[in-house]
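Quarterly update from the structural biology core.
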Amino acid sequence: MLQINQLSLHSADENHSTVSFENPLQLLLSCHDKILHFSSAVLTLSTTLQQQGWNEPLQTSAGQIRRYFNVSGPQHHLDEEEHLFPTIISLDPELKQSDTIEIMQLINRLIKEHVESDILWEALDEMLAEQSEDFATMIELSQQFAADSHEHVTLENELIIPYAKNHLNDSKLKQMGADIARRRGVKLPV
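Predicted structure, tokenized:
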């Protein structure tokens, strides 16, 4: 079986205890690590399927990948689209600061990429669910999905998250984390 559940969620300089709703930017970065991991895993799975065909261990691996992108992936998009991006936009809704237009353009691009990623994932998900043997198409879609995911995450990690760290105060971050938790049905301690 592919080792897709052997995932290090944190780089050496990150503290595991910082990943929580109380630290929403670190939570988003942790999700990005998982997106990178699972988008690479679907490509590895596709190439392995071409070599071996479907078997029980690869079906299990496909199920784990599908579960991540059908459950956690959409939640992450909502975390950004309903909480992170609007919080950033609320800093300068009248577009008075010089960098606001650039960050708005980037946010619009990222939302568009979420939609494109969802469409690409739907095609891959259908192939995995049906245990398709069109491995060439699966590999092609997986390569595009992995490349797009890596580029997207890089933009968010290098531009959006640092912008948020530099511009959002503790109060806004705390509120954003609480809103994410509430939407996900998690009750935070008071």
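Residues 56-89 form the longest helix (34 residues).
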